[in-house]
Amino acid sequence: MTILFIGDIVGSLGREAVKKILPKLRKQHSPDLVIANAENLAHGKGVTADTLQEMRAAGIDYFTGGNHIFAKKGFEQLLTGDNSVLLRPANYPPSTPGAGEKMIAINQNNILLINLMGRVFFREHLDCPFRAFDAILKKYEGEKFAAVIVDFHAEATSEKNAFRFYADGRAGAIIGTHTHIPTADERVSKNGTAYITDVGAVMARDSVLGVQRDIIIKNFLTQIPQTHEFPTAGIAEFNAVLITLDAQTGKAAGIKRIYKTVTVAE
To answer: Is 68 designated active site?
Structure first.
């Protein structure tokens, strides 16, 4: 099985980049499943029904989230229901709308997709993502699935790395998201877990994490919070990973970084 995991898609420019690049990747690699982090989908923060449908039409099957996934009105409807294709981190309080895991049927196999969020440097008071992972595996203990894929949405590289050792051999892939900057540490452990600290993002290349660079520079110079604006045209970078999994064992055979650029017109 091959899984294509796309990093945080930022705003309209990110969505346009996906529409230009993803069809070619689907034709080239024929992935069995395409997943993307959607927490920045709608103008850089949150997700709407229209932006979610736009990305589904572009070829993305399922979406994970993070701390910004609740930013837009109507998130409850997108996160709930048996047919929802959008996850939020599983270690939010139980009363939070939506689910943090999803059993996905592809071909003759089931994939357990889990969305977790780190706690280091975040303001949210969340349950332990390590224990949340254990609880989810226990919940599905009697069910048959080919592999486990985890989006670990976190700020600190140390927390992500600690989790990869904690879940080593129990997840087929652990994909770090949130920081928008891709790391060069993709690997497959001897126990068959594919890992990368951060997959990166789909965003304006000449920006600061997808935000117009002058705004962020002014923020640093003045220490006065600025309203974030997101470029709508220019060169976009597209970051993703292609993961190869053994459907019989649930172990990863490989992980490959994908980096593309494309020009998005006004």
So the answer is: yes
pTM reported for the whole predicted model: 0.96
Distance CA 163, CA 245 (A): 20
81 pLDDT more than 90: no
Q: If we measure between CA atoms, which residue out of 44, 173, 57, 52 comes closest to residue 115?
A: 173
Task: Please tell me whether 219 is known to bind a ligand.
Answer: no
Distance between the two ends of the chain, CA-based, in angstroms?
37
On average, the pLDDT of the chain sits at: 96
Q: Which two tokens stand for residue 102?
A: 């999803």
Which entry of 29, 43, 68, 228 is annotated as an active-site residue? 68
Inform me whether the pLDDT recorded for 89 exceeds 90: yes
Q: How far is CA 89 from the centre of its chain?
A: 11
* Nearest C-alpha neighbor of 252 from the set 173, 199, 160: 173
Q: Is 228 annotated as ligand-binding? A: no
Give the C-alpha distances (Å, rounded to integers) separating 157 from 92, 134, 178, 204, 261: 20, 21, 11, 23, 26
Cα-Cα-Cα-Cα dihedral of 54, 97, 165, 260, to 10°?
Answer: 10
- Length of the chain counted residue by residue: 266
Give 192-223 pLDDT, tens digit per residue.
999 999 999 999 999 999 999 999 999 999 99
Sketch out the chain's domains with CATH numbers.
Answer: 2-264 (3.60.21.10)
153 annotated as a binding-site residue: yes
